[in-house]
């Protein structure tokens, strides 16, 4: 089943406050939908509104496929860039989201 015929990409926007540059993460339909062998489709993102302050969303492995993710624990940042894991490319910078 080609889910791109029926579903659009999801876009998450991080850091929309006036002093933080906005960073976006776009996930294609195959990155947030789970399709079984009978072509049943399930949403691969759970409602996180009951966690923390109501604004928590957890993105798991299905949503991060095709991305190279960098965790900067010292500076409390997460960055990502599109990547073909079979043939990784050299990247000079990542669009970081500052927590």
TrEMBL record:
> What Gene3D superfamilies does the database record attribute to this sequence?
Acid Proteases
Please give the Pfam families that the UniProt record associates with this protein: TAXi_C
Top-rank taxon, per record? Eukaryota
Q: Where is the Peptidase A1 domain?
A: 1-81
Per its UniProt record, what InterPro entries does this chain match? PEPTIDASE_A1, Peptidase_aspartic_dom_sf, TAXi_C
**What protein is this chain from?**
Peptidase A1 domain-containing protein
Species assigned in the record: Ilex paraguariensis (yerba mate)
